[in-house]
Prior knowledge:
The chain is α/β, with parallel strands linked by helices. It contains 9 helices and 14 strands.
Amino acid sequence: MSKQYNVAVVGATGIVGTEFLKIAAERRFPLKGLKLLATERSAGKRIPFGEGEITVEATTPGSFKGADFVFISASSAASKEYAPIARDAGAIAIDDSSVWRQDPDVPLVVPEVNADDVAGHKGILAIPNCSTTPLVMCLAPLHRLNRVTRVIADTYQSVSGTGTAAVLELEEQTHDWERKRESVPHTYPHHIAFNLLPQIDTFMDSGYTKEEWKMTAETRKIMHEPELPLSATCVRVPVFIGHSLAVHVEFERPFRAGDVRDVLRQAPGVVVQDEPSLSLYPMPRDAAGKDPVFAGRIREDVSSPNGIAMWISSDNIRKGAALNAIQIAEEMVARGLV
Ligand SMILES: NC(=O)c1ccc[n+]([C@@H]2O[C@H](COP(=O)([O-])OP(=O)(O)OC[C@H]3O[C@@H](n4cnc5c(N)ncnc54)[C@H](OP(=O)(O)O)[C@@H]3O)[C@@H](O)[C@H]2O)c1
């Protein structure tokens, strides 16, 4: 019988944790045991899994005894506290927050792009930001053939990227708007319903937001290109699930749009949806609930001789978080690293 693993999920009641459980069941992750962890608030909740139900426990430093993998999809504070404790208890911690991503001892992995990086792990591995993942999945295969020299990425990020509270807030604001009722924003600095917020995370001295900085820093780390010029503008949009990006890429040499389409058709985890005559292109509504990253609107950039413009959509909860984390674990299992 193939090996099975004891898994603990910190944040099992959250939006990513819930999707994680679905994906683990779908992909038949080889589970020996499954411990569901959250805050004291959720302790005692029963969550259906497989044929039965599992009772959620409050996370404590003792929660990871005997675990092979600890998936952490909670808060930055929880990731900072619990990832080292899980590692020291002998588990492999796979973390969804941003706190470990730039640590030189922590591989930041999108298995379709830099799976080999898992080999250098020291007990903690991280997934990238949910907009960085689809971007690198499209950039990396093109970069291998024709060096990327500059990237401009503008994102259209759904509220589920912020977590459960933001999803509820968009629902409430939409109902309030229908009923012509005033509402007060809580999760974001402004209303998100029927609005666009050109701010994700806090502002830095440079004028960029932390989310925009993360896209640059994480893309560089995953692609092993520490100087790659990338400028992002990250925008929160009133969409429930699915992040999209308008991307302008410059290459060392000209790249024909047809060749880019061909390369992306072969790229693992990427599906090209590009038939303008049929209005066929990626959309968050279609990408929601699906595993691939969808790329379309691929065209030669009229403003740059070596430039390509494209549009990308993907499910931020699946490939942007839970699926990527499980794929990292699968990669480690396949390489005998556990
Ligand atoms: N949403 C995305 O698209 C996405 C993408 C990539 C990465 N991430 C990252 O994934 C993580 C989870 O995000 P989410 O969207 O799932 O948020 P969420 O819906 O707000 O869920 C948060 C979960 O974390 C638990 N939690 C919070 N603080 C905790 C603590 N101190 N100890 C133990 N559990 C704690 C919550 O438990 P209670 O239910 O008991 O409060 C809940 O289960 C975040 O780090 C986020 O940055 C999210």
